[in-house]
Every structure is written in C-alpha cells, then in structure tokens.
Specification:
β6 and β7 form a beta hairpin. The termini are far apart. The radius of gyration is 24 Å and the shape is elongated. It has 3 helices and 8 strands, in the order αββββαββββα. Strands 1, 2, 3, 4, 5, 6, 7 and 8 form an 8-stranded mixed β-sheet that branches. It has a single domain, classed as ABC-type transport auxiliary lipoprotein component (Rossmann fold, 3-Layer(aba) Sandwich), CATH 3.40.50. The protein is α/β, with parallel strands linked by helices.
C-alpha cells in the first residue's frame, strides 16, 4: 500500500513538472521607431549650421519597455513589448535625419559635433506612452519640448516650446501603437520644421 502511494505521488509530481516545463513563456517583441522623412526644400532656407544636442527622455519613459496609461494616476510597463534600443537613441537620430532631409540648414550636426554652428537644438521627450484610459479609444501619445539657441557671445533662446501629438490606434496592439507613435513623431517634427523655417527666414 505504501509502495502504491509512493508511485502515485511520484507520477503526480512528474505530471506537474512536465506541465511547468511545457508552459510557454511570452516571447519578447522588439520594435524600432520610423518616421517618413520630409521632402527636401527646393533650396536651402539658410546656409547656417545647426547642431542637434542631446534629445533626452523623461525617466518614466526612458526605458526600453512600452508604457501604458490606464488611469489618471496609474501607468504600467510592458516587459514583453520593448524598443529595440532605448527611445532616446532612436528619437535623437530621427531628429537629426529629419532636419538633414528638410534642407532647412546648410549643415546639421549630431551628438559629438565639433564644428562651430549658428544654432543649437536640444530637447526632451516628455510623453511617450499608450493612453488606454478609454479601452474603446486608445491613443499613442508623444510630446517633445524643444529649445533652440542662437550661438554668439550672448546666446539667445529663439524657441522654447513643446509639441504634442495624440494619434488614435487602429487596433489595441503593439504594432498599431508603434505606428501611432511614428505618426505622432512625424507631426511633432513637422511643426518644428515649420517653426524653424520662420525663425531662420526672418
């Protein structure tokens, strides 16, 4: 009898172990941001040079994990849907590439620029999350605060402004969220481009 109980317990344990081992874990999905580049201007609006300094990201949105807002005060991270590399690195390069393609300036330098420039552009991403407070109307939210400084003996702040975009998701999934962020970034950079054109054309 004792032997039979031992065999039964052993078999039950083996079934439990096999069940644990065979349970699949969710695979991490990685995504990269991508913004369509603007059509270049027919001519340079200015031959001035600009350096894009560091575009930072607020700590709460700086990790590779996607961030979801589910209530006024509650945010959560998704550790299975992540950025391929930190969002600050991606957005910094996107801003540089966008300005280069816009042809507003004769030269656009990125991080590590060692050429004297007429302008310096810095920024900080203040919002980068999925707004799931209304499950039937999810949005991808993006906001960047830009500061443009005119170089010289007395540097002058020419722009100090935040541009924000809220783009509805086609579906409530990660791929749709990334596409919404991409569209939002394009809107933000389009407004920045328009403002920069007005500044350097004066």
């Amino acid at each position: 009898m004792i032997k039979n109980k031992f065999i039964l317990l052993a078999l039950s344990g083996s079934f439990l172990l096999s069940g644990c081992v065979s349970t699949p874990y969710p695979q991490r999905q990685t995504y990269a941001l991508h913004v369509a580049m603007p059509n270049p201007s027919h001519h340079h609006a200015s031959d001035d040079k600009i350096a894009v300094m560091n575009i930072g990201v607020l700590p709460q949105f700086a990790s590779s994990s996607f961030v979801y807002r589910t209530s006024v005060m509650h945010f959560t991270r998704d550790y299975y849907n992540i950025f391929f590399n930190p969002p600050a690195e991606q957005i910094n390069q996107i801003v540089v590439d966008y300005l280069r393609h816009s042809k507003l300036f004769g030269y656009v330098g990125g991080i590590g620029n060692n050429i004297a420039t007429h302008y310096m552009l810095s920024g900080e991403v203040t919002k980068l999350y999925a707004d799931y407070r209304n499950s039937k109307r999810p949005y991808g939210v993006t906001a960047i605060h830009f500061i443009l400084t005119r170089s010289g003996k007395r540097p002058t702040v020419m722009l100090d402004q935040t541009y924000q975009a809220r783009v509805p998701l086609v579906r409530k999934d990660s791929a749709s969220l990334v596409r919404a962020w991409n569209r939002g970034l394009a809107q933000v950079l389009g407004r920045l481009k328009h403002k920069l054109y007005g500044i350097i054309s004066d």
